Amino acid sequence: MKVVLLDEIKGKGGEGDVIDVAQGYAENYLIPKKLAVAATKGNLKQLEQRRRNIAKREEVRISNANTMQEALSGKSVSVDVKVGEEGVLFGSVTAQMIADAIKAQLGVEVDRKRVELGRPIKLAGVYPVEISLYREIRAEVTVLVGAPEKDQDEEASEEAEASEEATDMPAEAATEEVEAPAAE
Q: What are phi and psi of 143, to 5 degrees?
């Protein structure tokens, strides 16, 4: 079924494009959500009349995407999460967390759906993450995952002290228990 797109649909096309999709996809998803209309003679005629307005909006979207690409490319953001032993995270870093970090640290608002992770991040480290801004316009951001090094060092020393205290206590308790039966 041929439809005229009223908005950009990732992987299908942009506003004003005439594409061929499955009839069920068009009737059950695109048309009810007002993302497309059937490509009838009347709708195609209206599309020709609106082409100039669509071209202007397209130019604005592309220029906005290019400015965002310049603002994001080569930048790095840090996502602070709890890190367990051997750099394994408690949970994982999500696209929403990365989008929030970009907004907080770089001042650029990015939709979480535009962050392309591929696989969930479950280990502390440095990861390149691609952000799809508009159609083929993409930016790559470096994401630093994990708590800052100072905090990790402090936590490691506190854990070491706590483990030393814990090992001292059972050793003393064990010797007292051994001596107690011998005294009787």
A: -110, 120
**pLDDT tens, residue by residue, 10-65:** 888 888 999 999 999 999 999 999 999 999 999 999 998 888 888 898 899 999 99
User: Token match 């604005």: residue?
Assistant: 60
Separation of alpha carbons 148 and 161, rounded Å: 20
Superfamily holding 2-66:
Ribosomal protein L9, N-terminal domain (3.40.5.10)
Nearest to 102 by CA among 134, 124, 78, 82: 78
Break the chain down into helix, strand, coil percent, rounded to 5.
50, 25, 25
Helix axes 41-72, 95-106, angle to 10 degrees: 60
Looking from the CA of 168 toward its CB, the CA atoms found within 13 Å total 6
Distance of alpha carbon 144 from the chain centroid: 13
CB 103 within 8 A of CB 109: yes
Contact partners, residue 108, CB within 8 Å, separation at least 6: 68, 71, 72, 102
- Yes or no: say if 69 and 133 are a contact pair by the CB < 8 Å rule: yes
